[in-house]
Design a protein that fits this description.
Length: 355
């Protein structure tokens, strides 16, 4: 297997900086949009054969160092029988948001095993097609999944969620506990049944919280998720956006790799996390809309800040945006590989000098 990504997760030397992109399969790819004329989002990610096909799309265009399984953050919730809708332009929308203690009590309790079998099957199919590249399984972080359930859908400020956790902390903790149970079992399915080589926990929206609130209301649940999903040889990536004030806490919570967005310089973030932990990131996704010259400078800045230290995985600070030119993505992937080539005969090592 091409183990560049896994070696970086372990902070081992690599021949080049590994690169993959969040949402590297999505609306910006013509082949994905063509499939969407025939299938709904739910049909695509709930059918393992279709989901496998979508997962493999990036390899036809880009020399990425990992594939991320095509699924949805709310997959385990749907398997629990909680109805929600998914749309390209909006995201997950809960049909009946959880707003009261009785709603929390009614939320089903499960150890989560069996909730990830469809996605595990997708991973199996992908690995049968491409056995030499790591496959990433993923789940939502407890806060992010619960915020969709409480808010009813995506939000800019998560005011309903924040009101709920302040006004009824007991119900909040009970709901977080139940969701965490489900996520733990779901991840076990992806690894133990599907064979995922790496897992990523997308706690995408946890950056709306202060460090004190994170410590009290999220930390114990997410820490338990990481404590109970230790798999031999399977690294875990812990991701969030707007988490500049939470990085030290996220390190304490868990994950062999902490993934950061573009709002904090990579070296500043890494110093906060600790040089003994791997880091992922952190190009601004909109940089892919700029000129090749501007994109090159921004990508090289990320590499310079990494300083050729072992343990850097190049990624965007969040997902590829709709409307991104796939040729720009191909250019970025090739640029990162070429510029980070460890052999002086294949790369200009002056790119990595301070500056």
């Amino acid at each position: 297997m091409r183990d560049r990504l896994i070696r970086a997760c372990r902070r081992e030397p690599t021949d080049r900086t590994p690169i993959w992109l969040m949402r590297q399969t999505g609306r910006y790819l013509p082949e994905y949009r063509q499939l969407r004329t025939r299938y709904t989002l739910r049909e695509l990610w709930s059918d393992p054969e279709l989901a496998c096909q979508v997962t493999l799309f990036p390899l036809k265009r880009f020399d990425v160092d990992a594939l991320i399984v095509f699924a949805d953050l709310m997959s385990p919730v749907e398997e629990l029988g909680i109805p929600f809708e998914i749309s390209d332009g909006i995201g997950p929308v809960a049909e009946r948001p959880i707003r009261s203690p009785s709603d929390v009590e009614a939320f089903p309790r499960s150890d989560g095993r069996g909730l990830g079998l469809k996605v595990a099957r997708t991973i199996q199919l992908v690995k049968a097609e491409v056995f030499d590249i790591p496959v990433i399984g993923f789940c939502g972080g407890p806060f992010t999944v619960v915020s969709y359930l409480v808010e009813g859908g995506p939000s800019r400020d998560f005011a309903v969620t924040r009101s709920f956790l302040y006004s009824d902390p007991s119900s909040w903790h009970l709901l977080m506990e139940k969701v965490t149970d489900a996520l733990i079992g779901y991840l076990k399915d992806l690894v133990l049944e599907g064979g995922a080589d790496v897992v990523q926990v997308f706690d995408s929206w946890v950056g709306v919280l202060s460090p004190d609130d994170y410590k009290e209301l999220v930390f114990p649940h997410t820490k338990r998720l990481f404590e109970e999903t230790v798999f031999q040889g399977v690294p875990r990536i812990h991701f969030g956006t707007g988490t500049g004030s939470l990085l030290r806490l996220m390190r304490e919570v868990g994950g062999e790799v902490i993934s950061v967005d573009w709002r904090v310089p990579l070296d500043t973030a890494w110093e906060q996390i600790g040089w003994d932990r791997a880091i992922q990131g952190n190009l601004e996704p909109a940089a892919l809309f700029g000129s090749r010259e501007a994109l090159t400078e921004r990508a090289l800045t990320v590499l310079r800040r990494a300083g050729e230290r072992p343990g850097h995985i190049f990624n965007l600070g969040h997902g590829v945006l709709p409307g991104t030119d796939p040729d720009q993505v191909a250019f970025l992937v090739d640029l990162v590989h070429t510029a980070s080539e460890r052999s002086p005969s294949h790369a200009d090592t002056s790119l990595f000098k301070a500056g």
